[in-house]
Amino acid sequence: MQQTSVSAGPVVQKRKLWEVIFASSAGTVIEWYDFYIFGSLAAIISTKFFPSENPAAAFLSTLATHGAGFVARPFGAIVFGRLGDMIGRKYTFLVTLVLMGGSTFAIAFIPQYASIGMLAPILLLVLRILQGLALGGEYGGAATYVAEHSPQHERGKYTSFIQTTASIGFFVSILVILGCQFALGKDAFTDWGWRLPFALSGFLVVLSYFIRRNMDESPAFAKLKKEGAISKSPLRDSFKSRENVKLMLIAMFGAIIGQGAIWHTSQFYSQIFITKMLNVEYGSAQTIMAVAVTCATPFFVFFGILSDRIGRKKVMMAGVLLASLFLYPIYKGMDKVVNEGTIVSTRLTEKGEITQFADGKVITKSVKKLADDQLEVKTEVTLPTTAKLLLGLLVFIQVLFATMAYGPIAAFLVELFPTKIRYTSLSIPYNVANGIFGGCSPFIATWLGAMTGSKFAGLYYPIFLTALTFIVGMLCVKETAGKPLED
Asked: Start and end of every Major facilitator superfamily (MFS) profile domain (predicted)?
């Protein structure tokens, strides 16, 4: 029986290792930026590319289109995972980068529904699917590439920098959106300025391309290639071994699904909850999200380092358990911050009915007549600083749970699979779990709320997924920290 060789980790100079992390992370940040601006602008996009007769249906359609990008991710994992295991991590990086950047750039130039009718949402959906395909190949490559350069005893530390890229991309997307909104004014931004964050992707992707094109292939893959041991059919090899399929299923149901649920709930659904259900003014909501995500981002690295010391499993399981226990009370607290208080005065003005609260909160209700003579009632809440801080703290706690579940996961997944099928075997369960289960969380949660009439009904979905992951993970996941990478 042939023995599988293992490696305690490559000998890579620290300077070279940081260059690898920077090059991988820079491109991944840009890809996440591209992917996230769609979700951050969902409320505006729904008015541009879908019929305006039913705003709620248009918003749900936009969330469904947003979710389509996540559903496409497993297919991207299959396509680009195969390429990554056959031709190399570096070249696959470049393809996913160009595909993502080009698709995002093109969204900036799609005519609105009023101009081209149903062709507008169709084009939007196609480009969103292309984004999803690209992202499906990106994460597995970045995690694999960095891990294959990292020393064994610090693999959690160095791969955790890849985990920060999603939050940084999310933060950059919010920063760009707020900057454009401030420079153009709210009306101009809503009218046409929302296209600028998409257009900026063209510049960013060119910059990242030049950073990535000078990267070397990973030592582990280069060694396999030199020995002629590269898999000729990574997809078949990933599924022909019962043990490997078992590992993929354990990874998906025992770690990734819960991580994906809390990640997308804290990053996306919380934003939808604040703006659409609590009616907080858009600029304030974006600022709250940006500050909360920024403050939580260093904890990806903290928990990655912690996983090198006490184990991946303990840290990840703590994250999903805390999420399953505290998501509901956190959202009840968010609702209380915004909707409870002592009313000081209520008056009618040209802007509508304005209610002033003792804590400085102001609720404005206005009525707008639509083209079909229907009336649209709009509520907007302006929060005082104290309420913003409390709301930001509650978002921060959610993201903190996500950093616990997400920080060690790249190292954990890389350590499960052998080098010749690592890109494929890692990417498929990760993107199925994050794409279908996690990525659809905002849509499913919003849909549950609309169907039941309860603003909290949507939380049952991520709570179920995080609880399921904790149970399966505790029973089936084995510790991988300190494990040499199999060739």
From this structure: 20-481
CB 352 within 8 A of CB 409: no
pTM: 0.81
Q: Is the pLDDT of residue 1 over 60?
A: no
Domains and CATH numbers, the chain: 13-486 (1.20.1250.20)
What is the Cα–Cα distance from 57 to 16, expressed in whole angstroms?
Answer: 51
Say if residues 360 and 343 touch (Cβ distance below 8 Å): no
Contacts 24+ apart (CB under 8 A), 141-144: 141/80, 141/84, 141/89, 141/92, 141/93, 141/96, 141/423, 141/427, 142/24, 142/25, 142/27, 142/28, 142/93, 143/410, 143/413, 143/414, 143/426, 144/84, 144/89, 144/218, 144/414, 144/422, 144/423, 144/426
pLDDT in tens, 299-332: 999 999 999 999 999 999 999 999 999 999 999 9
Tell me how many degrees the CA angle 41-186-440 measures, rounded to the nearest 5: 15
Cα separation, 433 vs 446, in Å, equals 19
Q: Quick: pLDDT tens for 371-414.
A: 556 656 778 888 899 999 999 999 999 999 999 999 999 999 98
Q: Average pLDDT in the 96-102 region?
A: 83
d(CA 92, CA 247): 24
